[in-house]
Specification:
CATH topology: Amino acid/polyamine transporter I
Helix content: 55-70%
CATH superfamily: Amino acid/polyamine transporter I
Structural class: mainly alpha
Strand order of the largest sheet: 1-2
Oligomer: single chain
Strand content: under 5%
CATH architecture: Up-down Bundle
CATH class: Mainly Alpha
Number of strands: 2
Low-confidence stretches: 1-10, 616-627
């Protein structure tokens, strides 16, 4: 007989009972800040300037505002239901298990790919300063990790991240406190010193303030590591089940971990643009688009300080090499913990085996931590460079943030009795803005990145059917197995024959299908899978699938909008700027209102509400305040 997954009253509400609520507000805030001041400050300023020139300054400020808009919805959700792996778990509460799996899978992929990119950042800086390590070699002008030296060193760093996480959130947060102070002080000292040698002509003399136009500013936000550098506000949500007084501390830490990095990064961008020495880079003045292949690409600030020829700045450059290890390492070990808690959240909802919820004696989900470490190491193979991996991570992570905007109105409808220490005003105005902003960032990432993200997201569908679908009793094991195997085989064939994903150049492999053929076949296969799953499922399964169609539409409609838009591969796109962006806004609004309408009172949400009703709202609120 098929094993049925039972929910049991209070199971979801008390799922975090094994986790230790040991973090203070300061520790939680520092986790968020530390997660953002990592490899981003070492490389993103060069990448952003390469996209937008001096106008990269605006990109940081705009990105900060956009992240703040996304965080509005999560501020209420985080104060209402602080949970470990929160961003993954909220989707299950509003749109059920199928949507929850798609979002959770994408979020987990983004989380586990951040530790390897931080390891790549460490090895890129050190390999550039000490070529005798043989960590790096050039591939199409970009520094990538070598085999075996570079990749083996990266795996060793991943094991170091694992060890720090294994011994508990308290050790992680305590060690992170002092590292974060270092990570704030050294970048501050860097831009202060570089201001002394600032060359104002770099801001206007070589093509003007926006030498490549307005459009690349938005592309830089999504693809140059800017959004990647500002994603750390989610740490306050992902560690919400392990912090004292979460209703107060989670929202405060969320806002603090947005404001501090935005200010810091904007000042660093000013300092870097002003410090550019074109001849030392090996470039002609104004060759902004070649910055990523310049001599400074393996260590932008180190070379900027070294080229000044001032002894004091050279000494600071030595400290910068130390920080090239410290900052990314600290971010890497924080995000490995995030990946583990994301897998833990998937385990709470039984999308993965319950063993992923197993905690060690330090209160850490150790199985989830091991799996996250192993999968993270795999990313060294297809993307052994910081510049190659950053766009994928940014788009995959921001894609999952649409759930805050669409989920908040649903929770207002299904769980009005749960106390909300922070309550967002004018939710009907801010929620759709939060949703659309997240999708615009994904759209601005560009077609190549988006094609890889959507392909990687849908590869998780067979895993859902093989485990959750038949374990839950939606459909019997035999059709579940056949459906998953057939889809996986067809998906692999389309990905290879189409030639649009996993290409080293970011374009299309020779001999691949035209985009029209690829898009039609890919969309048809995904829709066929979902329709067959619905047809084979019981009434419960059909309800969950029907609550997910809006998300399938959003992903499949965004792909052609991206291809035919300014950020696609066409030289003369029919949806040039800003028309493609406006089309994406229209797609986003359709998906938002559709998603709000089909959100329902899930079994997990009923479970949580029942626990409040049994004890009384006031008693529940008092209990939460005491935590």
């Amino acid at each position: 007989m098929t094993e049925q997954i039972t929910q049991g009253r209070g199971r979801f509400e008390h799922a975090d009972a094994g986790l230790k609520q040991s973090m203070s507000f300061t520790q939680l805030l520092f986790l968020g800040v530390s997660a953002q001041v990592g490899s981003g400050w070492l490389f993103a300023v060069l990448a952003a300037a390469g996209f937008a020139g001096p106008a990269a300054l605006l990109a940081w400020l705009i990105a900060g505002i956009l992240i703040g808009l996304i965080a509005l919805s999560y501020a209420e959700l985080g104060s209402m239901l602080p949970r470990s792996g929160a961003i993954v778990r909220y989707t299950y509460l509003t749109h059920g298990s199928f949507a929850g799996w798609i979002i959770g899978w994408a979020y987990w992929l983004s989380a586990v790919s951040i530790p390897p990119i931080e390891a790549e950042a460490v090895l890129t800086y050190l390999g550039g300063a000490y070529p005798q390590t043989h960590f790096l070699h050039k591939q199409q002008g970009v520094d990538v990790l070598t085999w075996p030296n570079g990749i083996v060193a990266g795996i060793i760093l991943m094991l170091f991240f694992f060890a720090l996480n294994f011994y508990g959130a308290k050790l992680l947060s305590e060690s992170n406190r002092w590292v974060t102070l270092w990570k704030i002080l050294l970048p501050t000292a860097t831009f202060c010193f570089l201001f002394a040698i600032l060359n104002a002509s770099n801001f206007h003399a070589y093509g003007g303030f926006a030498p490549r136009g307005v459009q690349p500013i938005f592309h830089a936000i999504a693809s140059a590591g800017i959004i990647f550098s500002l994603l750390g506000f989610r740490q306050a949500l992902d560690y919400g089940g392990e912090v004292r007084n979460p209703q107060r501390n989670v929202p405060m830490a969320t806002w603090g971990s947005i404001v501090i990095p935005v200010v810091l990064y904007t000042l660093l961008q000013v300092a870097f643009v002003g410090a550019i020495n074109w001849s030392d880079m090996g470039l002609k003045p104004g060759q902004w688009d070649l910055l990523q292949t310049s001599k400074w690409a393996d260590g932008p600030f180190f070379h900027a300080l070294d080229s000044a020829g001032i002894a004091a700045l050279a000494a600071l450059g030595t400290l910068l090499l130390i920080d090239a290890a410290v900052s990314p390492l600290a971010t890497g070990w924080v995000y490995l913990g995030t990946g583990a808690r994301t897998a833990y959240g998937l385990g709470v909802h039984r999308n993965v085996p319950p063993i992923f919820q197993a905690n060690n004696r330090f209160g850490i989900p150790w199985v989830a931590l091991i799996v996250s470490t192993v999968v993270g190491c795999v990313f060294f193979v297809p993307a052994p460079s910081w510049y190659q991996l950053v766009g994928f991570i940014s788009a995959a992570a921001v894609l999952t943030y649409v759930m805050g905007g669409v989920g908040l109105p649903v929770m207002r409808r299904t769980a009005p009795q749960i106390p909300r220490p922070f309550r967002l005003k004018a939710v009907g105005f801010w929620s759709p803005i939060s949703f659309v902003v997240a999708m615009l960032i994904v759209y601005w990432a560009g077609f190549s990145t988006l094609a890889n993200v959507i392909t990687a997201t849908f590869i998780g569908l067979p895993l859902f059917v093989w485990y959750y679908g038949w374990k839950r009793g939606w459909l019997s094991p035999v059709p579940a197995t056949i459906l998953g195997v057939v889809f996986l085989g067809v998906w692999a064939y389309i990905a290879y024959a189409g030639g649009w994903v996993l290409t080293s150049s970011g374009g299309q492999r020779s001999g691949g299908w035209s985009f029209g053929v690829y898009d039609i076949v890919f969309s048809a296969v995904v829709l066929a899978f979902c329709l067959l799953l619905r047809w084979l499922s019981n009434a419960e399964g059909r309800q969950h699938i029907d609550a997910t169609w809006w998300l399938i539409f959003l992903l499949l409609a965004t792909l052609p909008a991206s291809y035919f838009g300014y950020y696609g591969p066409l030289k003369n796109p029919p949806l040039g700027f800003p028309w493609g962006t406006l089309v994406e806004i229209g797609i986003g609004l359709i998906a938002y209102y559709w998603g709000v309408r089909v959100g329902f009172n899930t079994e997990e949400m009923q479970d949580i509400c029942a626990s409040y009703e049994e004890g009384g709202t006031e008693a529940a609120a008092a209990k939460l305040a005491d935590e």
